[in-house]
Amino acid sequence: MKALVYNGAFDVSVQDVPDARIETPTDAVVRITSTNICGSDLHMYEGRTDMETGRVLGHENMGIVEAVGAGVDRLKVGDRVSLPFNVACGTCETCVAGRTGFCLRANQAGTAGAAFGFAAMGEYAGGQAELLRVPWADFNALVLPEGTDKELDYTMLSDIFPTGWHGVELSRFEPGDSVAIWGAGPVGLMAAHSARIRGAAEVFVVDRQPDRLKLVAKAGATAIDYSAGDPVQQILEATGGRGVDRGVEAIGYQAHDASGDEDASLALNQLVQVVKATGGIGVVGVYLPQDPGAKDELAQQGKVAFDYGTFWFKGLSMGTGQCNVKAYNLKLRNLITAGTATPSFIVSHELDLTEAGGAYEKFDRRDEGWTKVVLHPGDFSAAR
Ligand SMILES: NC(=O)c1ccc[n+]([C@@H]2O[C@H](COP(=O)([O-])OP(=O)(O)OC[C@H]3O[C@@H](n4cnc5c(N)ncnc54)[C@H](O)[C@@H]3O)[C@@H](O)[C@H]2O)c1
Ligand SMILES: [Zn+2]
Ligand SMILES: [Zn+2]
Fold first, then answer.
1. By the 8 A CB rule, do 160 and 65 touch?
2. Domain 160-320 belongs to what architecture?
3. pTM (global) more than 0.90
4. Which residues surround ligand 1 with Cβ inside 6 Å?
5. Is the pLDDT at 368 greater than 50, yes or no?
6. 256 CB contacts (<8 Å, ≥6 apart)?
7. Which parts of the sequence belong to the Enoyl reductase (ER) domain (predicted)?
């Protein structure tokens, strides 16, 4: 089968690899219809993780069940499914508690949490490929309405729509709250869409990319351009000096200042400033325990100069981490089916899998207009 292989920093290519197959009775094999490139893939693409060369990338996957193992009794061949980026066993302590992003059994390295095609998250192949092996398939796969309707909406259920929702949840959001989101990438835009659906009074989204800032309005939010001035001041001015009830960090450790220099602490500290006393911050942007590719020593050790004194003095709370996709994806599927949620508004490109290499390059440079790339392996004109 064809698959997108990581060859090393800034080097990915579509190659022929052995077909994904059933390896244990609880597996299914899914024929991928849509698989997206994510901001998380870029951390790996840029060589800023310990991703092994030769592995297949892709954790935002959906498709049609092609085969099921002898131990699979809920899923049927032909089912249209969305696959959470998390690989989870369904029966360990954290899975039973609903925190499937921190499964205690799925990661062969023994750390909590596993994912398809991801650095340090187990040995699972990714789904930027024609076929994908899905472990514990009955537990992990979410069945979608059959056919090809709303493909570009449902494809956001594997990661970024639940992750945006999770960021809002981690901030301890309540209806009527005001929210400021740092980062207008796909995740930040999904957080804005989620906050609107959940009844936010006011939503701000900070970025400096003009094309992404334009999409902020489509999410029903106010765009704040941090290259035009301090974003904290801009939001304070817009709120009569009050700030916001909730903040969401949707950038990650490769955040940069207005001149383009990386600074992992900048956005976190700006959120501490802009969120009202006793408010909450949800951090879904990825931070790593080590970052050898970082410029300064602190960042290399996975540490940030966090403004903890102000954070504490204001009585703020913070929630962090990978999204537990299964905690949200069924209800978010229903919101899409009902027409309440339309996460496809961020899609800028639908391409064939064979065009993935060039797409990585352009998405990584944040080229104008490259907001979210959906790849269709094989002939998938029906999805368009
Ligand atoms: N927690 C999870 O489960 C989860 C899931 C998916 C993605 N992620 C992570 O979320 C983050 C965002 O993902 P994405 O796909 O939207 O990525 P992205 O890289 O496309 O978007 C990040 C955006 O942040 C902007 N940005 C950079 N520095 C900024 C600053 N100082 N202030 C404001 N904006 C700034 C960039 O211009 C860019 O538009 C990544 O770190 C990704 O790995 C986490
Ligand atoms: Zn993703
Ligand atoms: Zn588990």
1. no
2. 3-Layer(aba) Sandwich (3.40)
3. yes
4. 38-40, 42-43, 159-160, 163, 182-188, 206-209, 212, 226, 250-252, 255-256, 266-267, 284-286, 322-323, 366
5. yes
6. 262, 263, 266
7. 8-375
Domain boundaries, the chain: 2-159+324-383, 160-320
Which has the closest alpha carbon to 354: 113, 29, 5, 25?
5
- Asked if 318 contacts 311 with a C-beta cutoff of 8 angstroms, the reply is yes
**pLDDT computed for residue 182 by the predictor:** 98
247 has which bridge partners? 180, 281
In which element (H, E) is residue 151 found?
helix 151-154
**pLDDT per position as a tens digit, 257-289:** 999 899 999 999 999 999 999 999 999 999 989
Cβ distance 213 to 223 under 8 Å?
yes
Gap between the Cα atoms of 363 and 372, Å rounded: 8
Q: Is it true that 2-159+324-383 and 160-320 share their CATH fold?
A: no
Closest ligand 1 atom number to CA of residue 286: 41
Rounded Cα distance, 273 and 235, in Å: 10
Among candidates 128, 126, 46, which has minimal Cα distance to 365?
A: 46
Q: Of all protein residues, whose CA lies closest to atom 13 belonging to ligand 1?
A: 39
What average pLDDT does this structure show over 165-169? 98
Degrees to nearest 5, angle at CA 269 with 204 and 305: 155
Class level of CATH domain 2-159+324-383 = alpha beta
Distance in angstroms (rounded) separating the CA atoms of residues 7 and 55: 8
Six token digits for residue 64: 């049609």
Backbone angles phi, psi at 156, to 5 degrees: -80, -5
| Ligand 3: centre distance to CA 372 (Å) | 30
The answer to whether the beta carbons of residues 371 and 211 sit under 8 Å apart is: yes
User: CB within 8 A of 101, min separation 6: which ones?
Assistant: 86, 88, 113, 321, 322, 323, 324, 325
